[in-house]
Specification:
By secondary structure, the protein is mostly helical. Helices cover 68% and strands 0% of the residues.
């Protein structure tokens, strides 16, 4: 519909996105089209065709007042882009509809913003990607995924110290799987060598079983001896690390226990019980 008009000069990648918008509108997926339009407007805020596409989406979603504003902005840039019948229709609805569909909250836009950041990282456009993560953090200052994405962009732009400062207190446990690969790369974790692909030695398994049995019977020092032996036999097995974390916790070494928990999570994200992890983290913070 709107691509039948002349399109202003833009990057080829942006033109492809605009074609995608056109396709989504034809399929009547106006929310999906609106998300792509928002991404395009970040780089092309004065493109009349994109502004008209935004007006089309907003009109279809019932946001008539903002649709009219977008249509007027597009007309001011290029008077031929917005058809008169559309402009007259949306003007009538904006001026005669008392109740309109409320705008989506800023937080509801976060998934779309984060996905835009991921897409730009995949294209190695780290400066652009960082802008999306900056925007996400403005909406939700403690969003872990945005923080990891921002750190990854800083790292790729050569600001490695800044990158690692940002993720110093980030828990791998709490990161969305989409962003784990960035976090693991920043932390130097070899995910291909993860412990869940590793078969334990029988002797290691026996020592760990004995160690956890000792913990159940509150024989913590005996348990720690078992886990230490198991770890020396196979440093890639996560079970001795988990066992050692429990032992250190029960012996009152909370900070050391927390470090072992994080080491275990880096080896296998499912290795540590979440309730135990939060308990250790809380105790470690009290000590600090």
């Amino acid at each position: 519909y709107f691509l039948s008009r002349e399109v202003n000069v833009m990057d080829f990648s942006d033109l492809l996105l605009l074609l995608k918008v056109n396709d989504l509108i034809e399929k009547k997926d106006f929310e999906g089209a609106n998300e792509v339009v928002d991404e395009l407007l970040e780089e092309n805020p004065d493109n009349a065709s994109i502004l008209f596409a935004k007006a089309l989406c907003l009109d279809a979603m019932g946001d008539f007042q903002e649709a009219l504003e977008m249509a007027e902005k597009a007309k001011n840039i290029d008077g031929d882009v917005v058809p008169d019948e559309f402009y007259n229709s949306v003007s009538f609805k904006a001026n005669n509809t008392v109740k309109r569909t409320p705008k989506r909250s800023e937080e509801s836009k976060l998934p779309s913003i984060l996905n835009s950041g991921i897409n730009l990282i995949d294209k190695n456009e780290f400066n652009k990607a960082k802008l999306f993560f900056d925007r996400a953090l403005c909406i939700q200052s403690e969003n872990i995924e945005a923080l990891v994405g921002q750190a990854y962009c800083f790292d790729r732009l050569g600001m490695k110290t800044r990158a690692h400062e940002l993720i110093d207190d980030v828990d791998r446990f709490e990161i969305d799987p989409k962003f784990l690969k960035y976090f693991d790369e920043l932390m130097g974790i070899d995910v291909e060598d993860a412990v869940y692909n590793h078969e334990s030695l029988n002797e290691v398994t026996d020592l760990c079983d004995r160690g956890f049995s000792y913990i159940e019977n509150f024989k913590i020092k005996d348990a720690k001896v078992c886990f230490n032996k198991a770890s020396k036999l196979d440093s890639k097995d996560v079970n001795p690390v988990v066992g050692n974390a429990y032992c250190l916790y029960y012996l009152g070494y909370y900070v050391l226990s927390f470090k072992e928990c994080k080491r275990a999570i880096n080896m296998d994200i499912d290795s540590i019980d979440r309730v135990f992890y939060r308990k250790v983290k809380s105790k470690a913070k009290e000590v600090k």
